[in-house]
Amino acid sequence: MAALLRTDKPRGAGHDKLWLRLIGVGKLLKALVLLALAIGVLRLVNTGFGDEMAQLAGWMRYSPESTVLRWLLDKASLLSDKRLHQVAAAAGIYSCMEFVEAYGLLRRRLWGEYLTFVLTCAFLPLDIYELALHFTWTKLAFTIFNVLAAWYLAWHIKRKQQMRARATEGN
What we know:
Number of helices: 7
Largest sheet: none
Distance between the termini: 27 Å
Strand content: under 5%
Order of helices and strands: HHHHHHH
Number of domains: 1
Structural class: mainly alpha
Radius of gyration: 23 Å
Number of strands: 0
């Protein structure tokens, strides 16, 4: 009877697959958002970003005397085409990194697990600094996701190494 219930899969293999897929899907969604941001910023080049913001504010019927609106329009007018290109390039590169991580995790590649762990840990100090500087619930959610993903990947990689070591000792 016990032989019928026994499987060749290691214990927890189904959960590993689920968590790796969830992290991979999260990375894929982040990559798509960053790609949309990069494309959106590129579309603002050579359009007079400050003028576009002023038109949008008028369309939304904001009072031109609003101090917040004036401040936003002043900040928007400081963004040069060169700065917009830099922002778009940074978002595009970050998007590519996220796509590679997502591919590696969704295809269950060992290099994907290592790459995601290293890059996630590398960006955690920046995420935490940005969260402390300008708190938003969205930033908090992304930071928590990244902390949990890094923790899980560290545990998962260590467990895989222990399983391999046991397998080689048994041979």
